């Protein structure tokens, strides 16, 4: 009987291992691994942490006592200073003259973010105003829009657009008022009068004519008394 060498029983396994090692070496040489990519997850996590930290700082800045609107990703302006958005009416102008109107008042054309920031603080006017990048906008507050919906006709219900910033890009030859950003001029003695809003439902109800009935007669409570006061309950 021939004794088998135990080494030969491992030959198939060794062949398989050699193939695997060879394949790994081939792939490593053909597709080298960038050492920086080994830290991609750490960088992503660090980046996420920094973004969250920045966002939380903004929320604090936007919600402190001097900045009472809710933080949103729409407006990137966080700081308050003496400059603000103001709407200039009077003689409507084309876009090429809008910047000159603001410069005459020591200001510049307002940007979208500056207008959005003003809206978040309650600004509203129902007139288009030229703004940066050949756009024209006007802000409308939700409470005002809700009240306008009480109007009888469609024209009045849509007179101030929808809540938020209304507008977009327009032909440069259109004539609009102007939205400027800078130090607002001193308030004039004569106040600007905003267009009258439709009456509220309560005001509409109060203005309805009240029907008056004539020749009304009120009878006594009974044959002995005018009213119930002092009357003893009768035995049943």
TrEMBL record:
GO terms for molecular function: hyaluronic acid binding. Coiled coil: none annotated. SMART domains: LINK. GO terms for biological process: cell adhesion. The chain crosses the membrane at residues 6-28. PROSITE patterns: LINK_2. Gene3D superfamilies: Mannose-Binding Protein A, subunit A. Residues 81-182 form the Link domain. Keywords: Disulfide bond, Membrane, Transmembrane, Transmembrane helix. Pfam families: Xlink (PF00193). This is Link domain-containing protein.
């Amino acid at each position: 009987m021939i004794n088998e060498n135990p080494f030969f029983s491992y030959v198939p396994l060794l062949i398989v291992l050699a193939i695997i090692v060879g394949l790994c070496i081939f792939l490593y040489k053909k597709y080298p691994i960038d050492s920086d990519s080994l830290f991609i997850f750490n960088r992503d996590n660090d980046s996420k942490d920094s973004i969250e930290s920045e966002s939380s700082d903004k929320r604090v800045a936007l919600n402190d006592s001097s900045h009472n609107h809710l933080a949103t990703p729409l407006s990137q302006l966080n700081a308050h200073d003496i400059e603000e958005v103001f709407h200039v009416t009077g003689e409507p102008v084309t876009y090429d003259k809008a910047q000159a109107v603001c410069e005459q008042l020591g200001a510049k054309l307002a940007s979208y973010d500056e207008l959005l920031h003003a809206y978040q603080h309650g600004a509203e006017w129902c007139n288009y105003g030229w703004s940066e990048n050949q756009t024209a906008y006007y802000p409308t507050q939700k409470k005002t829009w809700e009240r306008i919906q009480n109007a009888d006709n469609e024209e009045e219900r849509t007179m101030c657009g929808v809540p938020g910033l209304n507008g977009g890009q327009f032909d440069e030859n259109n004539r609009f008022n102007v939205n400027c950003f800078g130090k607002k001029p001193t308030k004039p003695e004569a106040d600007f009068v905003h267009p009258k809003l439709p009456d509220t439902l309560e005001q509409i109800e109060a203005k309805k004519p009240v029907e008056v009935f004539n020749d009304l007669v009120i009878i006594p409570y009974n044959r002995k008394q005018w009213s119930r006061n002092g009357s003893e309950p009768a035995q049943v």
